[in-house]
Amino acid sequence: MAFGTGTHASTSMCLLAIEELAGLLQNKNKLSFLDVGTGSGILAIAAVLMGIQKGIAIDIDYQAIQCATKNAAKNMVGKNIDFSTTPLKKISGDYPLVIANILPHTLIDMKEELYLRLQKDGYLVLSGILQTKADKVRAAFCDKLKFFKEIKKEEWSCLVFNKS
To answer: pLDDT tens digit string along 45-67?
Structure first.
């Protein structure tokens, strides 16, 4: 019903990035996240299971939110995640971890809103990016963020940035 089974390269790379960043954030006592375009909720669920205590997961698709809510309940983390169809522009606050596994042009279009939702010293994980588009996405985000790392799998890239 919604994107995100964990088998697609873009999702599995996000999971690797979240696992690494969860350890860094736990050491800093920064334990919340924002998952933009949550789909099935797999990344939000994984973030909680990896130790990031609470988060908000949004999607423009109401069916995806219903599916993600059920998946979180099945994984016993439903109380840790607020699922919503609230547009990114209307989400308040900032977060030490922001995740977005969406197409490159959409990521670039959302750049300012993603930046505004990221805490100082926070991490932005971007995926859903073909390697042929990674340089364009990196260039778009490097004007305000420090490039942290790139994870590659098959023809896909996951870009991680830091707001220092």
So the answer is: 999 999 999 999 999 999 999 99
